[in-house]
Amino acid sequence: MNYQRNSWNKVLEFMKLDNNASMQPNEEANSMKDKLKSFNKLFGKICRVQSSWFIVDKHLKREIITSIVKLLLPAYAKFIRRFQRVLQFGKNADKYIKYEMEDIATGLDDLFQGSSKSD
């Protein structure tokens, strides 16, 4: 839990959706662009660092990765769907989306390999 709180909860903070009804569409789009940019940067950094870590216990490693996947993928999917709607039904959304769902899953699966992979 401490590991998750110190690493991945920071990433999840960027995926929280604004529920401010008085926010103008362009303000919401800009907020989401900023959040996605921050997510991309932090996700890449965490994956680079933690792929160089090594967990000897294969069962523990799989448990940790599975818990992160269950936490992160649904939040990311929900954020991306909303992001695409906010940016006028996906217009130009792709230029801001650095990671597809399978990229996120692959990045998480590469954690704790004990190698120094680059993003």
From TrEMBL:
The keyword Repeat does not apply. Coiled coil: none annotated. One of its GO terms (molecular function) is phosphatidylinositol-4,5-bisphosphate binding. Keywords: Exocytosis, Protein transport, Transport. It comes from the Eukaryota. One of its GO terms (cellular component) is exocyst. Signal peptide: none annotated. Residues 2-109 form the Exocyst complex subunit Exo70 C-terminal domain. The keyword Protein transport applies. GO terms for biological process: exocytosis; protein transport. Component of the exocyst complex. Belongs to the EXO70 family. This is Exocyst subunit Exo70 family protein. It comes from Trifolium subterraneum (Subterranean clover).
